[in-house]
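Please go through the protein record below and explain what the tokens say about the fold. Record follows.
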Amino acid sequence: MESRIGNWTNTTEDLIPDQFAFILYGLTVPILFGVITLSGLIGNGLVIYVIVSRERMQTVTNLLLLNLAVADLAFVVVVPPFTAYQMAAKWWPFGDVACRLLHYLVNVTAYVTVYTLVAVAVMRYLTVVHAARTVHYRTPRVTVAVVAGIWIAVLLFNVPVMFSYRSRAIQTSSNGTSTLSYSIRRSRCRRRPLR
């Protein structure tokens, strides 16, 4: 079966990939990312509330878990909604600065998570192997300093990421073919087609 759309003639077989892409990127991905965002907001919000509101919960390990929850909360607030929108709409309406900040925050939250897990492992090692000698290092005050150091280092070391991404316009030629404008830098954010 053939159908005419503008100057294009498509058979039913040609439309199946487009229908599949719509179902996947237009429906499934936004719904799943919405579920991820909602569950991340609720779960991490509860962890943050419990640790912050109860004095006895503010132990060294729990402060590190609090940092994990904050990093994960920052991730689920920013990354899934914008990524889902971009996948569904197939273009990036938020501009160059938002494109750069999105990729910067992806890296920052990922590295904060990794280095916080390293800090948990180091604290556990010090607690088990060198308990008596390191008791003065395993305090909430030192843990807050370690967490602040992780955030400062990761925020600074990931600044080059902001300069390695940018949004690019998609150029549509008169014969209907689309080409991307050339960029030296990586680009994951595509703006609306130029006409």
